Amino acid sequence: MSLFRLDTRPGSGNLAPDMPDERKTDRYAVRRDPAGYTTFLIFTGEPAVVGGVPQSGLSEEDARHMASVLNAQSRRGDSSMRRSS
């Protein structure tokens, strides 16, 4: 697998980093919010909820870690952390 792909935007002609295959199925990402960072569900934009607690207002490190853990579990089909009870 190549780590780069041709950036086909007009006038670019540059190589851009290619997204690893496992990242193409990510369900969660991180964004800045007024209180810190939020781990959110890509498809809805809603904060991820773990054990009934919205994952917002986190440090950047914690939000990225949570997104990584949730994406890994999602790839395995495990939703146990996302259940509220």
CATH C-level class of one domain: Alpha Beta
CATH topology of one domain: ATP12-like
- The span between the termini is 41 Å
Helix and strand succession?
EEEEEEH
Strand line-up in the sheet with most strands = 1-2
Q: Give the % helix.
A: 10-25%
Rg value: 16 Å
Query: Mean pLDDT, as a whole number?
Result: 79
The rough form would be described as globular
Low-pLDDT parts are none
Q: How many beta strands in the DSSP annotation? A: 6
- Count of individual helical segments: 1
Show the helix and strand layout:
Layout lengths: L3 E3 L8 E3 L10 E6 L2 E6 L7 E2 L2 E2 L5 H17 L9
Antiparallel strand pairs: 1-2, 3-4, 5-6
Explain this structure:
The protein has one helix at residues 60-76; strands at 4-6, 15-17, 28-33, 36-41, 49-50, 53-54. The chain is an alpha+beta fold. The chain has a domain at 25-77: 2-Layer Sandwich (ATP12-like). It has a two-stranded antiparallel sheet with strand order 1-2. The termini are far apart. The mean pLDDT is 79.
